[in-house]
Amino acid sequence: MDQKKLEDLLKMLQVNQGDLAKLSEQQRKDMKDYKFWKTQPVQKFGQEVDKEGPIDAQKRPEDVPADPLPMLGEFEWSTVDIEDAAQLEDVFVLLNENYVEDKDAAFRFNYTREFFHWALKPPGWSREWNVGVRVKATGKLVAFISAIPIDLAVRGKDVRSVEINFLCVHKQLRSKRMAPVLIKEITRRVNRQDIWHALYTAGVVLPSPISTCRYAHRPINWAKLQDVGFTDVPAGKTAPEMVAMYALPGKTKTSGLRRMAAGDVDAALALLVKYQRRFELVQKFSKAEFAHWFLGEDESASDDDASRVIHSYVVEDADGKITDFFSFYSLPFTVLEHAVHKELGIGYLFYYASDADFAFDDRFSAEATAALKTRLTALIGDATILAKQAKMDVFNALTSQDNTLFLDALKFGPGDGFLNFYLFNYKAFPVTGGIKDDKSYDTERRSNVGVVML
């Protein structure tokens, strides 16, 4: 199936550059010329890692400058108060008009106010970490970057960090070199709170990825995707054949499956903690963080509430035990200049956990792999059905976690988009990303990336 439109959009965020090991000599040379990243505490290309840990010796917060970095004369720094409706609207407009748009200007990510409240206000969030740049004369917001607190574990070692996201500069100001200044300013503000490490992702290859995962896409409403020009009928196929290929059942099949409730938090969190021990790069959730990320702002929202951002489900057995959970979130596209359709519903697989292979000593044994593959294929298959019920037209996933066990079986086509994971001020050995050297799904080693970023 031709998913060119989807790939055009995703490659704006996740450019297909391949992993570091496969960089050509010319690409390596180009990266050496990156003046900004040469000044930052990040792993360099080709750098041998003999021991994992911080790159720069930790300083004290009082050693970090208290004043913001200098800004170009016609602009000024702005701490964006996302709890203020007008200022949140500024972020909403900036990102929706400038963050990502395909080259034909037919589709654009449609960040909602509900999404920002969910993504930018986890427990421990700081107003100081929502950094904007405004035009002095008009107050117009023209650039933005954010950070949220995140407790990482890298091969079992705790690394107190932030997650950097939503770096956006107005398209008319891309030549002003604002992005490096935004990164330096958010770094200064985070350091002032005695945090010295960060996790971030990019499609482009920068110095130097700790892991690379591939995107995969599962069409849900193929007819609508064709109607808006999102995809075409492949050679040798007909539209009805494509619709039939991607048809989904009307109801889920897993016994005991239901939407997660507040009373499930303890059991589901314990399940996730145990499941995540298999991965080398994970986020550690407190109970409050787990409730925020998987229940969202409004637990009372109805099942068909169009404003719901996060969808989380658990499986409860006959004895009342939570044996599985999965989640996905909504980030729709706006369809520009179409007579009928104004939006495409896009679902993203988030975190999940299952006890299917807990009884086995070696999770890579044939028996453990078969048990987990069977369970996950059923669970995520139900997730696609629930995504359809939530009016989503495409379901996306990475090759992270244990995803490669079910991607082919559930008709997730491999995308052209790759997502590189980076650690700031922390050197680490490579982490497998669920893809082989030829970029096909790695069903044997799978992935050791357990963290999922928005």
Automatic annotation (TrEMBL):
Its main location: cytoplasm. It holds the Pfam family NMT_C. Signal peptide: none annotated. It is an enzyme of class 2 (transferase). It is found in: Cytoplasm. Its EC number is 2.3.1.97. Residues 227-452 form the Glycylpeptide N-tetradecanoyltransferase C-terminal domain. InterPro entries: Acyl_CoA_acyltransferase, NMT, NMT_C, NMT_CS, NMT_N. It catalyses: N-terminal glycyl-[protein] + tetradecanoyl-CoA = N-tetradecanoylglycyl-[protein] + CoA + H(+). Residues 54-213 form the Glycylpeptide N-tetradecanoyltransferase N-terminal domain. It comes from the Eukaryota. Monomer. Adds a myristoyl group to the N-terminal glycine residue of certain cellular proteins. Belongs to the NMT family. This is Glycylpeptide N-tetradecanoyltransferase. It comes from Maudiozyma humilis.
